[in-house]
Design goal:
alpha+beta; Four Helix Bundle (Hemerythrin (Met), subunit A); paralog of FGE (formylglycine-generating enzyme); Rossmann fold; 3 domains; seven-stranded mixed sheet; four-stranded antiparallel sheet; 24 strands; globular
Length: 751
């Protein structure tokens, strides 16, 4: 496994497996995968280290992760029919499922005595190794090409699953007391000799100044081609086309030295920089600096060592900081404050990460496996050595953020070194399909509670190190992950945060978030009698809460700018909100991110008043997930189905604006994916049926209110009507013009 790279002999992972190769290459890749695991676990000094609980007690001890990938081989070979009998049925059940901790305090205290001995696990590993080797050498299925439809795909899946756990196990080893581990003799060396930085980090001495590089608007394509000859996880496939606005991103990953300034400024003690959940995690863990920093002096000395995988070394200020999502977002908030301007600092989103990777590694443009992450060789990490990446165990740790050359766009480490946290929650691509051999790999994590990480790290190998890799972790979880910072251009912020040229959006913001005093001109109101009206949003939410027995999941269809969605989050644990309008979703997303946004209330003619839409601080904004999509075709937005079924669904002022309102309602009758039995459907509609929105054949209107309800009932065949009411409300156009609307509200219960 050892090859010569430059002037140094280092262990290097084999390139990702080309599925067009035969048995011999399959066997080599399996052996290499297995050996990497053995090398990593050889770092444990004693049997005690295998059973030591992580300090956070939210994960199993390492003995589980030594056996879990092996158990996975057996289970997938059984599922695919490549073998017929278990190797050890008890072990295959015990080690089948790991822990995806829901929260930072989701502690697991009762599993200490269940684990077999280390010798028993080693014997099991030997048995499975023999079984897998025999399958590769003898099974006739390997005489045919390997594709997603073939049983042999299961074995490729097992290889890449073990390589994922090579990395997750490395993090658990890094979390152990360092006296329990030692650097394996075959482990790669550090990038350079360790420098003894004992004092505070000095810009330009211990770490380089990080500059922002401007990036123009771009188009990107996401999705691995179905016929690409390497293994891929289900979330990698599909096809999305996305546009990015202009932005600026840091040239380097954020270094320990840069992050130290946040620590020194009291960033961990200042609540204003943290999200509600992030602050809860920080307080629960009493965190004062990054988890892999070790205090190296008296309190307040600001002296630290750095914990690598196997030892504590002097702090390397020019290495990328390793933090969780909450910490990276807090740093961005602090940086925004330090700037003192209207610039907003945040993390990259997925599309932007693809843009900064450079021309040499664009998606869907490959002709063969010779590109950098598709086929690494011992002589070069990519053709012509134009780009280098710290992954596939080229080095034994993260390396300085400026150590390797930049790509053609001027960015360093867009792939490799450490994973990069993204703004996006984990989500499927369009046309996502579950692979039958692992039905719950991705879908449970399309829950809005897992953040995307992209780019891979120094220990990422195989598919994890490929450009197609899309992975995720809960925001409090630690991986070999850091971040870079994006500065949104001022003009983009204006377009997003202040929609002064879009009167419709301004009207909706006023309707959803404005007080009664905001919506009516007070001087005019004093002299005339306005009609008695109600707040439509408050009433529909009130009905949702009243009639829904369960308060776990709610779906807001036609959410517009999110007023009802956020109110529902006060009572429902999870709210999924969808609207067809991209600009509405952008506004709602800004509100979720910042808790407020500016808009304009038109007075008359040329004159407007600046107002701010603000959310109540008690609302847990993280509970809401906003999506763009068609309410009549929910199947085209897989996240909707994955988040369901829902306890309550709201359609407010939506039905008569749909092109296919019948199909919209039929979805709830024909499928249990969206509304659970006993669930509540609240429909609020003015019944303004217009051909510019809806074909006449699709109208659900009637000569009377009762006739309209009858049309609704004809589509909701397995629903009971619980309540009907008429509710008047107004929408303000300007101080002297209002639209009075009377909405018919009906409440339905699914049988």
């Amino acid at each position: 496994m050892s090859v010569l790279t430059g002037d140094r002999k280092v262990p290097l992972s084999l390139p990702v497996l080309d599925l067009r190769e035969g048995r011999e290459e399959f066997l080599k890749y399996f052996q290499n995968t297995w050996e990497l695991t053995e090398i990593l676990f050889s770092s444990l000094r004693s049997e005690k280290a295998y059973y030591e609980r992580p300090y956070h007690k939210t994960r199993h001890p390492l003995i589980f992760y030594y056996a879990h990938p092996v158990c996975f081989y057996v289970n997938k070979l059984l599922v695919s029919g490549l073998i017929q009998d278990p190797v050890n049925k008890e072990f295959e059940l015990l080690f089948e499922t790991g822990v995806d901790e829901m929260t930072w305090d989701d502690l697991h205290e009762s599993d200490q005595e269940i684990w077999p001995t280390l010798n028993e696990v080693r014997a099991y590993r030997d048995q499975v190794y023999a079984v897998v080797t025999d399958v590769i050498k003898k099974h006739p299925a390997f005489d045919e090409p390997i594709t997603q439809a073939k049983a042999t795909w299961a074995l490729a899946m097992a290889f890449e699953h073990e390589r994922i756990h090579l990395e997750t196990s490395s993090v658990l080893i890094r979390e152990l007391p360092h006296e329990l581990v030692r650097k394996p003799k075959d482990w790669p060396e550090y990038f350079k000799d360790i420098e003894n930085f004992k004092r505070e980090a000095k810009l330009g001495v211990h770490y380089e100044k990080n500059l922002f590089i401007q990036v123009e608007s771009s188009s990107v394509e996401l999705g691995k081609p179905n016929d690409w000859p390497t293994f891929g996880w289900d979330n990698e496939y599909g096809l999305d086309q996305r546009e990015t606005d202009p932005f600026e991103a840091t040239k380097f990953l954020i270094s320990n030295g840069e992050f130290f300034q946040f620590v020194k400024a009291g960033g961990y003690e200042n609540r204003t920089y943290w999200s509600e959940q992030g602050w809860g995690w920080r307080k629960f863990r009493n965190v004062k600096w990054p988890t892999f920093w070790r205090q190296d002096g008296p309190a307040g000395s600001n002296r630290f060592k750095l914990r690598t995988l196997f030892e504590e070394i002097p702090m390397q200020w020019d290495w990328p900081v390793i933090v969780n999502y909450y910490e990276s977002k807090a740093y961005c908030s602090w940086l925004s404050e330090q700037d003192g301007s209207e610039n907003n600092y945040r993390l990259l989103n997925e599309s932007e990460h693809l843009v900064i990777r450079g021309k040499g590694i664009e998606h869907r443009k490959f002709t063969d496996l010779s590109d950098m992450t598709m086929g690494l060789s011992s002589s070069a990490l990519i053709p012509n050595n134009q780009y280098l990446a710290n992954h596939n165990l080229r080095f034994g740790s993260e390396i300085p953020v400026d150590a390797l050359p930049p790509n053609d766009k001027g960015f360093h480490d867009t792939l490799g070194n450490v994973w990069q946290w993204c703004e996006d929650s984990f989500h499927p691509l369009r046309n996502f399909k579950i692979h039958p051999y692992y039905t719950d790999f991705s879908t449970p994590c399309f829950d809005g509670e897992h953040q995307m990480i992209l780019g891979g790290s120094f220990i990422s190998t195989g598919d994890e190190a490929s450009i197609w890799a899309r992975f995720h972790f809960r925001p409090h979880f630690f991986q070999n992950a850091g971040f870079r910072v994006v500065k949104e251009r001022l003009e983009n912020q204006v377009n997003i945060d202040k929609y002064d040229t879009n009167e419709t959006v301004d009207q909706y913001l006023l309707f959803h978030y404005g007080s009664e005093e905001d919506q009516r001109d007070q001087k005019i109101s004093a002299g005339i009698n306005f009609p008695v009206t109600s707040n439509l949003i408050n009433r529909t939410v009130e009905l949702m809460n009243h009639f829904s027995d369960s308060k776990k999941r709610a779906l807001d269809l036609g959410c517009a700018v999110g007023g009802a969605s956020f109110q529902l989050a006060s009572t429902f644990k999870s709210v999924t909100a969808l609207d067809y309008s991209d600009i509405f979703i952008k506004v709602a997303t800004v509100l979720k991110k910042n808790g407020k946004t500016q808009y304009q209330r038109k007075e008359t003619g040329r004159f407007s008043t600046d107002l701010t839409a603000s959310l109540n601080e008690s609302i847990e904004r993280e509970r809401v997930q906003f999506l763009q999509g068609d309410a009549s075709q929910l199947s085209e937005t897989p996240t909707i189905k994955n988040n369901g079924p829902y306890d309550a669904i709201l359609l407010s002022n939506l039905l008569c604006r749909l092109s296919k309102p019948k199909k919209c309602l039929q979805q709830f009758s024909e499928s249990n994916d969206y509304l659970s039995s006993g669930g509540v459907l609240v429909i609020a509609s003015p019944n303004t049926w217009l051909e510019e929105f809806t074909p006449k054949s699709e109208f659900l209107d009637g000569e009377s209110s009762e006739a309209t309800l009858s049309h609704l009932a004809s589509q909701l065949t397995n629903f009971d009507l619980l309540q009907v009411e008429d509710l008047p409300f107004i929408i303000r156009e300007h101080r002297r013009k209002y639209e009075l609307i009377i909405s018919q509200i009906s409440v339905w219960s699914k049988k």
